Amino acid sequence: MKAGLNRPYRCVVDNVGNLLIADLGNRRIRLIDLVTRTISTYAGSGRGDNAGDGGPALQASFGEPAGIAIGRNGDVYIADRAHNVVRKVDAASGMVTTLAGSVWREPSDVAVAPDGRVIVADTGAGRVCTIGAGGEVAMLAGSLELPVSVACDASGNVYVCERSAHRVRRITPDGAIGPFAGTGAPGNSGDSRSAEGATLREPTCVTVDGAGNVLIADTGNHAIRFVERASGNIYTVAGGRRGFRGDGRDASAAALDTPSGCAVDADGYIYIADTNNNRIRSVVSAATEDDGFGEDDGLGRGARLGGGGRRGRGDGQADDE
């Protein structure tokens, strides 16, 4: 049976190379084994209540699992936007606990800093906070305009998507906040130039790859943008128009529909939560063409877009058609 997704919202690569997906409409966290190309449910019963603490992840329930992050030891952190909680799936036991609740207003994303603190995009409160090892909550930045996504690099910089301000800002380890990508005006411009002078439209996700490059789900432009660490320049790596087309072709000429998440694995594959197409799609560069996959398996070769999916709930074979 081929698997179905329902509004996949975020995705992240775990510590052993699996892809985890916040399958928002199905109220589950899904896992794709990228070697066997099979999908299974990692957490969530599909019910919409807030239950299951102290029990196994598959029996827990979530309202809107919007954000997902992986800790250094493999623990999985989930921001449940509907129930205003941040929960953790313990990697060793598979049990679920609430890490912090009752202090959030629509938390939309989580990240893990190099020092182990959990960083939360507390969207409804317009702030970014940290959760320490003892569960203590501290504000990192406030007065933000719909902060919907957070990410950390290896140096401890925190990147924040401010959706309604059409920009990504950077918070340095000493707490200073400044511009990173986007001028604050909505638009779709600036490729091959400094990211600070570019325009974005309602960015919804930011992530950092292993080399320190930053990827942005530029949702309102139906594109994935890439900020090169060395130069600070921004490029469109996939999409730029709304729809569904382009698999097996140049990714920059493809069509996406409201992409809300992106992730990068150790081999350089970019995975896209193509939300309104109910798909996870992938981008392969020439640097990753010796991947062992065939020409027709959905990942493709060269600078190409692939992947598939359909709306549904089933586990089984990942759909590459």
What does this molecule look like?
The protein is an all-beta fold and 321 residues long. Helix content is 0%, strand content 42%. The chain contains no helices and 26 strands. Strands 1-2-3-4-26 form a five-stranded antiparallel β-sheet, with no helix packed on it. β1 (8-13) and β2 (19-23) form a beta hairpin. It is globular. Residues 286-303 have low confidence and may be disordered.
SS-based class: mainly beta
Q: Average pLDDT, to the nearest integer?
A: 91
Strand order of the largest sheet: 1-2-3-4-26
Report the portion of residues in β strands: 35-45%
Number of helices: 0
Backbone CA Rg: 18 Å
Q: What kind of sheet is the major sheet?
A: 5 strands, antiparallel
The secondary-structure element order is EEEEEEEEEEEEEEEEEEEEEEEEEE
Low-confidence stretches: 286-303
